[in-house]
Amino acid sequence: MLKVVYCKISSWADRVEGAEHYYADLNQRVIPRDTKKVWHNLTQSEADRLNRRVKQDPQYPEPKWEAGEEVGYHFSRARAIQGAIAAYKEMFPGAVILVEGDIGMYEPQPILDGPPAAMKAINDLVERAEVIDWWEEDEEAMQAIANEWEAIWIPEFEKE
Questions:
Q1: Measuring CA to CA, which residue among 6, 152, 146 is closest to residue 84?
Q2: Structure confidence by residue, pLDDT tens digits, 104-128
Q3: DSSP state of 74
Q4: Which of 12, 28, 43, 78 could disulfide-link to 19, CB 3.0 to 4.6 Å?
Q5: pTM, whole model, 2 decimals?
């Protein structure tokens, strides 16, 4: 049983006019991939906001959304992350840590949920890597950070 779940946050916000939705997709390093979308139920205010927006579009003459309707997007990055934290252990039984990032990256990535000591240690390494702009400014310093990360990560989270 793999302990680690990766959360990839994506969005159309700032790319398409009026877009403000974020997606949270969860998966593990397994083949075949089993990506799971984090869903949530619309609140009344979210449904009202969406319906106000579509009323301006002649393509949608009637309101389309209702409170309680399940959708695969969230209205802020923070809400997408909250949804992922709330859902990952149920979606992936046995998981104990949620990483924000990509399963293809093998270097420090932010920990959203997990054992407090590991979260602090790894998130501190992520902050140090950000200060030196990852591999861009000081490869030797980044290699030292990557080595520290491996010393924490491999024994704790790469074992079955």
A1: 6
A2: 888 999 999 999 999 999 999 999 9
A3: B
A4: 12
A5: 0.88
Q: In whole angstroms, give the CA distance from residue 74 to residue 42.
A: 9
Structure token digits, residue 101: 């990032």
Tens-digit pLDDT profile for residues 70-104: 999 999 999 999 999 999 999 999 999 999 999 88
Using DSSP, state whether 160 is helix, strand or coil: coil
Per-domain residue ranges for the chain?
Answer: 4-38+74-157
Token pair belonging to 68 = 């309680």
Angle of helix 116-131 relative to helix 139-157, nearest 10 degrees, comes to 160
35, 45 contact by CB (below 8 A): no
Kindly tell me the sign of the dihedral angle through the C-alpha atoms of 43, 98, 4, 106.
positive
Reading the block at residue 86, the tokens are: 């709330």
